[in-house]
Specification:
The chain has a single domain (about 5-155), classed as GAF domain (Beta-Lactamase), CATH 3.30.450. It has a six-stranded antiparallel β-sheet, sandwiched between helices. The protein has about 160 residues and is α+β, with helices and mostly antiparallel strands. A hairpin with a 2-residue loop joins strand 1 (about 25-30) and strand 2 (about 35-40). About 40% of the residues lie in helices and about 25% in strands. The chain is globular.
Length: about 160
């Protein structure tokens, strides 16, 4: 069982996946120039292990961090772009998206990964809807880091 923060992020991710009709997903928090896995839903254990730490520029999440924009594939299992790493093919899904989430200052605080059951290209309108839906994650991250800071001050 994880920490309260991990449980809260996983709950947020579960709700988000339901809202956007995705079948699997991850939240990676931006730390020390890379991404640390903070929550995962319907991601096989070997894939979770492989993506515990993602350097900037590696895989879909790392590319989303490096580029500062969403990275997508129509089909995880058949992608030949090089963005999808071999372990990601173990996820039982087709279309996938890694999307940076920014705070109010424009800094990337996380990358949310979502995977869908069907092949598709995620068009600009849907991408914008997903981006807006992911904005509530920033509030959760900010609230949690504020709570941690408050706790540390009280010690």
């Amino acid at each position: 069982m994880g920490t309260n923060r991990e449980q809260e992020l996983e709950s947020w991710l579960t709700r988000f996946l339901g809202d956007v009709q995705a079948v699997a997903g991850t939240i990676h928090l931006h730390e020390n120039g890379g991404l640390r896995l903070a929550a995962a839903v319907n991601i096989p254990p070997p894939v979770r292990q492989a993506v515990m730490w993602v350097p900037s520029g590696k895989g879909m999440a790392g590319l989303a961090l490096e580029r500062g924009e969403a990275v997508q594939t129509c089909n995880l299992k058949e992608d030949t772009s090089g963005a999808v790493k071999p372990g990601a093919r173990a996820v039982d899904a087709k279309a996938a998206l890694a999307m940076p989430v920014r705070d109010q200052h424009g800094s990337i605080v996380a990358v949310v990964g979502v995977a869908f059951a069907d092949d598709r290209e995620i068009e600009h309108e849907e991408l914008e809807r997903l981006r807006r839906a992911s904005e509530s994650l920033v509030e959760d991250i900010h609230h949690e880091s504020h709570e941690i800071s408050k706790e540390q001050r009280e010690r």
